[in-house]
Design goal:
- The structure is a single chain.
- By secondary structure, the protein is an alpha/beta fold.
- The strands form four sheets. It has a five-stranded mixed beta sheet with strand order 1-7-6-4-5, sandwiched between helices. A four-stranded mixed beta sheet has the order 8-13-12-11, sandwiched between helices. A two-stranded antiparallel sheet has the order 2-3.
- Strand 4, helix 4 and strand 5 form a beta-alpha-beta unit.
- The longest helix is centred in the last third of the chain and has 23 residues.
- The radius of gyration is 19 Å and the shape is globular.
- It binds acetyl coenzyme *A.
Length: 330
């Protein structure tokens, strides 16, 4: 049976570290509040010269090197992001061009914090059907440029960071690789976590009026996100386990989207597992949306938290709301 095996992995974050103490100087917040409410101690923000495609190139180069592959060996690029360099085209074609790939298919996928799991599901289908054999799957975000660092916007400004992670997926005929993916959504929560403008809802789609009304900055109904996330994460993790007949004790590591440490802790409690089984690095990077899972996978693998033949479960929840999971035999 054709499976999508992960043969390469890498991540990249900007050099610039922004600590909670740095944010205290910009708005009415505190290290104590941020740490207690999110678990975040610092995050990385790009400098003037770095964009999402730059971070994606760095992570992709590391992933290709770890797979012992060259860019021209790749036959599809999927770029999961809500913060591409430009409104269109998306970032995938920048990766194709900057890495000197053949004229292969390259497209962006936008599912916010669930983007990487959605992208993994799409890549898995291409490999299972035989349409492609070697896919570069990227999650990359530059969110710092869309945040307002003042007291009025402190609820969001302290949560998000910039970064990129990338996987190389290749056809495998042994029993390792992506075992399953499950995707879900509930559009009634559209306005509970969103960035209203720019968009074709508005005529014109971008204007000073929209900016004056603050529609160009992200809004989150934190409590609604929290309530739904702590329900949907366990649901979709159990869905992956049940589908594959895997018991929780046979899972080496659960790698959730790094939304908020309190969400991960609530999920652990609801599932009756210790935080040793749920990977967390949000204290270092904040919430990097579609980049958070590949960054976490890359670090957890480097730390030796899972090895060949281990089962790992990825799970994500985000704007839409969307949520999803993937079961992988490494
Ligand atoms: N520093 C200090 N005080 C703050 C800050 C801040 N950065 N942000 C908000 N506050 C204040 C508010 O002004 C409010 O003060 P008030 O009661 O005097 O008005 C108080 O903290 C509580 O504000 P709430 O928004 O009601 O805070 P809540 O208790 O809901 O906590 C939080 C906010 C941490 C976001 C919480 O809702 C939460 O954990 N939600 C989960 C959502 C999340 O973390 N999402 C991550 C991104 S989305 C995703 O990845 C799926």
């Amino acid at each position: 049976m054709r499976r999508a095996k992960i043969t390469g992995i890498g991540h990249s974050v900007p050099d610039r570290v922004v600590t909670n103490a740095d944010l205290e100087k910009l708005m009415d917040t505190s290290d104590e509040w941020i740490t207690e409410r999110s678990g975040i101690k610092e995050r990385h923000h790009v400098d003037e010269s770095t964009s999402a495609s730059d971070l994606a190139i760095e992570a992709s180069t590391i992933a290709l090197d770890s797979a012992g592959m060259n860019p021209e060996d790749v036959d599809l690029v999927i770029f999961c992001t809500i913060s591409s360099d430009y409104f269109f085209p998306g970032g995938a074609v920048q990766i194709q061009e900057k890495l000197g790939m053949k004229n292969i298919g390259a497209f962006d996928l936008r599912a916010a914090c669930s983007g990487f799991v959605y992208g993994l599901s799409v890549a898995d289908q291409f490999i299972r059907t035989g349409a492609h054999d070697t896919i570069l799957l990227i999650g990359a975000e530059v969110q710092s440029v869309a945040l307002e660092f003042d007291t009025d916007h402190r609820d969001m400004a302290v949560l998000f960071g910039d970064g990129a992670g990338a996987l190389i997926l290749q056809t495998s005929d042994d029993d390792s690789g992506v075992l399953s993916t499950h995707l879900h959504s509930d559009g009634k929560h559209l306005q509970d976590l969103w960035l209203p403008a720019p968009g074709s809802k508005y005529k014109p789609f971008m204007s000073k009026k929209l900016i004056d009304e603050g529609l160009h900055t992200p809004y989150m109904n934190g409590r609604e996100v929290y309530k739904n996330a702590v329900t949907r994460f366990p649901e979709v993790i159990h869905e992956a386990l049940t589908h594959n007949g895997i018991a929780l004790e046979d899972v080496a590591l659960v790698i959730p989207h790094q939304a908020n440490l309190r969400i991960s802790q609530a999920v652990a409690r609801r599932m009756g597992i210790g935080m040793d089984k749920i990977y967390s690095n949000i204290h270092k990077y904040g919430n990097t949306t579609a980049a958070s899972i590949p960054i976490a996978m890359s670090e957890a693998f480097a730390e030796g938290l899972f090895k060949s033949s281990d089962n790992i479960i990825l799970a994500a929840f985000g704007a839409g709301f969307t949520w999803g999971s993937a079961a992988i035999r490494w």
